[in-house]
Design goal:
GO terms for molecular function: cysteine-type deubiquitinase activity; zinc ion binding. The protein is α+β, with helices and mostly antiparallel strands. The chain has five domains: 123 residues, no CATH class; 136 residues, Zinc/RING finger domain, C3HC4 (zinc finger) (Herpes Virus-1, 2-Layer Sandwich), CATH 3.30.40; 160 residues, Cathepsin B, Chain A (Alpha-Beta Complex), CATH 3.90.70.10; 192 residues, no CATH class; 68 residues, Helicase, Ruva Protein, domain 3 (Orthogonal Bundle), CATH 1.10.8.10. The chain has 26 helices and 32 strands. The strands form eight sheets. Strands 20, 23, 26, 28, 29, 30, 31 and 32 form an eight-stranded mixed β-sheet that branches. Strands 8-13-12-11-9-10 form a six-stranded mixed β-sheet, covered by helices on one side.
Length: 860
């Protein structure tokens, strides 16, 4: 009992979920919080924790036991009276999403002091207990918990100040705008709602047509006149304000140039230019936030259909949903896709694997910081029926309580009230996998493909650093190598038949979509003509591009300058991966540098034959191309993405000039060239826009670094970005505080090059600093050695012919990767299922032509 203590508000208290499973206070048996470590464990793991934590005697735990009690008739009536409209696109704030008020039950919360392993318990509160125990229990009960600490309590989609606000051009002699909403009308279609005023020239037109939102765009389903006016005027006037939202507190302002909602820092001044007094106006229409919330409310599961058919919900092992923790659909979709890979399920998804990782962990370390353990926890939660069986037990108890109130137990209603217990919330995993990353640590929407690369990299580092633990797992396979292969770039000089073969490590096959190859352009043009003449008539027709056209484009020979020679370069598979991830490059950078998405269909077959893309190596009559006289690196070769090691990077000077001319720093452009495979202007621009917020974007690329896509792809020896080795400047900052360079290096390695976190780590070590430093550096040395050995071992299957079968795909809905929503479709036991965050159902007609990422299994 001497170690029992009361937590302060600054301490991390895990009171919401088991460290090793997804048991919560509502699970049978409840949740046990260790009063010495403030870590929580389900009934299946509490004795194991007690045995590991105490060698001198029993341990004390706070048991939280919550049960759902049916609401009485009076309580249900009170709920109806309290129901109010959500008015703010926010969580946990006044007017935002409320939570559980509309549930047909109340939570009855009981707390007990439990002695483990004897499991003797005392109902709390109890005045007869020692004061230190009472204080410890009360401190845990009142503590906000780690979930709140790791989550932004008040999340709101707050727009950024537009870069055009201060210098916006406003034309003279513009029309005065009436303050009366009844006088406002679209200059093109005559509509009188959802009208936007251009703040430069005074044009009034309908807003953009938005996916899933009624009454947007111009009359008849056409695109809104306001955005078309922006294009028609040479894209000179970027800012528009929604007239019906103007009030004393502000208004909705959209920047067509920035393709986002923005804040106009001079809105009052800009409106006065048209005679509009901000303070005198009253809001008459819903804001875009309110419209978005209204759209969210429509997304009821029983209304999501495919080809007009209602979807049948699925539950149980392999059909467990993932809670959206706030723009985490990109993560949820990727985790569901990976869980469908048998080798991943065998390595991480078995209960036995989870238990072995629990038993082999560092007992002094925080389980929430153990990536192998938290990864296994998620996959085991998805692939077992623990939650489903617990839910059924709780439903039976709830039905008995309903009948005790004299009401009939409606099985359908009860099932609906307990669906949230059939899912898992990967909070610890999400916090850990995003830690230290400039994007994945935030609550913003992300690119699913980038997250997949990041996940491969982080798990690969954990696997290499703890290879001994991994070897104890049954049927263990490293994660990233399952998806990696060797690509062969062949440079051939036509005049001499001299050939150079370069091998690179790849993990995602990125396919460009040649829209000009669409097979239905006549139907598309007919639809576009009809839509213009008779808006709203007929179902929208998208260009349909055969996947073979994408593969043919990939297979084309490309003229390049190489080793001072004019060569033709082709790229082929030297080996084939066990699982092939294909990215359809639907996203591109428009001439105005905004991110766009192609509206195009690419029907993907369930069986794919890539045998035509198998590398042939050196052919008869071809000879090895000699090195350059000075032995230098090829002018066109990007050593980071071409399989080269350290040393100075060689860049395509013309490509650098092109990128720099677009306004990016030279260092940022060099980082882009190193990060993408086979760099060109388009791929580098995409990378630059996606990484423009990186804190080190304008720093010189570290020597020998690179392969952002490559290293991440297969967890290769070279790391990139925030996860690479510490830089001299970072080490110098810590040395200036009085630490030696060795300790500074270790601290930065331990904290992913975060100087602030590294500083805190150094001060927190105390007398253990020397041993902690040696442990970190030793682990780093082992990890680097394992990475080198892994790279030397070769990847992929050189004997395979390249035949694949589709196991699943991830689709994106929205205009670009920073917005919208991701869902996954996965084929299990011969049938397709859709995974939409918490919701899982049979898929009647999976949209294989609209996917973003596809995962194929090697079959031959």
């Amino acid at each position: 009992m001497s170690s029992v203590k009361k937590p302060t508000s600054y301490d991390r208290v895990y009171k919401d979920e088991c460290m090793f499973s997804f048991s919560t206070p509502e699970s049978p048996g409840g949740l046990f919080v260790n009063l010495s470590t403030w870590k929580a464990f389900g009934e299946a793991f509490v004795k194991q924790d007690a045995a590991a934590q105490s060698s001198t005697g029993p341990s004390l735990y706070l048991q939280q036991l919550w049960e759902r009690r049916p609401k009485t008739d009076e309580e249900l009536k009170e709920d109806e009276a309290k129901d109010k409209e959500t008015t703010k696109l926010a969580i946990g704030v006044e007017g935002g999403f409320a939570g559980l008020e509309d549930k047909p039950y109340k939570l009855e919360k009981s707390n007990f002091l439990v002695v483990v392993p004897s499991m003797e318990k005392v109902l709390l509160p109890c005045v007869d207990l020692p004061e230190v125990v009472i204080q410890a229990c009360e401190g845990v009960i009142k503590h906000q918990g780690s979930v709140v600490q790791d989550t932004i309590q008040e999340w709101e989609d707050k727009p950024q100040v537009s870069r055009f606000s201060e210098t916006l051009e406003q034309l003279p002699n513009v029309p005065r705008i009436s303050p009366k909403p009844s006088d406002w009308v679209c200059a093109v279609c005559g509509r009188r709602q959802n009208l936007w005023l251009n703040l430069s020239d005074g044009f009034v037109g309908c807003g953009r047509k938005q996916w899933g939102v009624d009454d947007t765009g111009c009359e008849g389903g056409r695109e809104g006149a306001a955005v078309l006016h922006f294009d028609d005027t040479g894209r000179r006037f970027p800012l528009a304000v929604k007239l019906g939202t103007i009030n004393a507190k502000g208004a909705d302002v959209y920047s067509y140039a920035e393709n986002d909602m923005v804040e106009d820092s001079k809105l009052k001044e800009h409106l006065l230019h048209f005679g509009i007094d901000l303070a005198a106006m009253e809001k008459t229409e819903k804001s875009l936030a309110e419209l978005q919330i209204e759209l969210n409310k429509k997304f009821e599961w029983d209304r999501i259909t495919e080809a007009g058919k209602k979807l049948e919900p699925l539950a149980g092992a392999g059909y467990v949903g993932l809670v959206n923790l706030g723009n985490t659909c990109y993560m949820n979709s990727i985790m569901q896709l990976l869980a469908a890979v048998p080798e991943v399920a065998e390595s991480y998804g078995q209960t036995q694997a989870l238990q072995l990782l629990v038993g082999s962990r560092d007992m002094q370390a925080d389980p929430a910081d153990d990536l192998l353990l938290q990864t296994s926890k998620v996959f085991e939660g998805l692939l077992t029926d623990h939650r489903h069986r617990q839910r059924k037990q709780l439903e039976e108890k709830f039905a008995q309580k309903v009948e005790a109130l004299g009401r009939t137990a409606d099985s359908t209603g009860i099932e609906a009230a307990f669906t949230d217990l059939d899912v898992v919330a990967p909070r610890m995993f999400r916090t850990l996998i995003g830690r230290g990353h400039p994007e994945f640590a935030t609550a913003r929407q992300q690119d699913a493909e980038e997250f997949l690369q990041h996940l491969w990299e982080e798990v690969s580092k954990a696997e290499r650093g703890q290879s001994g633990r991994c070897e104890t797992l049954p049927a263990f396979r490293k994660l990233a190598p399952l998806f990696a292969w060797e690509s062969e770039d062949k440079y051939k000089e036509g005049a001499t038949s001299c050939v150079c073969l370069k091998k690179t490590r790849e993990s995602v096959l990125r396919l460009e979509i040649p829209q000009e190859a669409a097979t239905n352009m006549l139907e598309v043009r007919e639809y576009e003509k009809n839509a213009k003449d008779l808006p709203g008539a007929g179902e929208k027709v998208l260009p349909r591009v055969p996947v073979q056209a994408c593969l043919d484009l990939l297979a084309q020979a490309e003229p390049v300058a190489f080793r001072g020679r004019q060569c033709m370069k082709t790229t082929r598979f030297a080996t084939f991966p066990s699982y092939l991830v294909i990215q359809m490059k639907r996203f591109y950078t428009a001439p105005d540098w905004t991110a766009k998405k192609m509206e195009v269909e690419v029907p993907m077959p369930e069986d794919l034959d890539l045998s035509a893309l198998k590398a042939e190596g050196m052919l008869a009559g071809e000879q090895e191309m000699p090195e350059e006289p000075d032995g230098g690196a090829p002018a066109q070769q990007n050593t980071a993405s071409g399989g080269g090691g350290g040393g100075e990077h060689q860049f395509d000077e013309m490509l650098l000039v092109t990128l720099v001319s677009m306004g990016f720093s030279e260092n940022a452009c060099k980082r882009a060239c190193l990060a993408v495979p086979s760099p060109n202007a388009d791929s580098c621009l995409n990378w630059l826009f996606e990484h423009s917020g990186d804190p080190d974007i304008n720093d010189p690329p570290p020597p020998g670094s690179g392969g952002g896509a490559q290293a991440q792809a297969g967890g290769g020896a070279a790391g990139g970005g925030a996860s690479g080795g510490p830089g001299e400047e970072q080490i110098g900052m810590l040395v200036s505080m009085g630490f030696d360079s060795r300790s500074a290096t270790a601290a930065l390695i331990a904290n992913k090059n975060d100087v602030g976190a590294a500083t805190e780590w150094l001060f927190s070590q105390g007398d253990a600093l020397v041993s902690s430093v040696e442990t970190v550096l030793s682990e780093k040395e082992k990890t680097d050695a394992a990475a080198a050995a892994e790279a030397a071992a070769g990847i992929g299957n050189a004997e395979a012919t390249g035949r694949y079968s589709l196991i699943g795909f991830v689709s994106h809905m929205g205009s670009n990767t920073s917005t919208g929503h991701y869902v996954a479709h996965i084929k299990k036991h011969g049938s397709w299922a859709i995974f939409n965050d918490e919701k899982v159902a049979k898929s009647a007609d999976p949209p294989k032509e609209l996917g973003y990422l596809y995962c194929y299994k090697l079959t031959g």
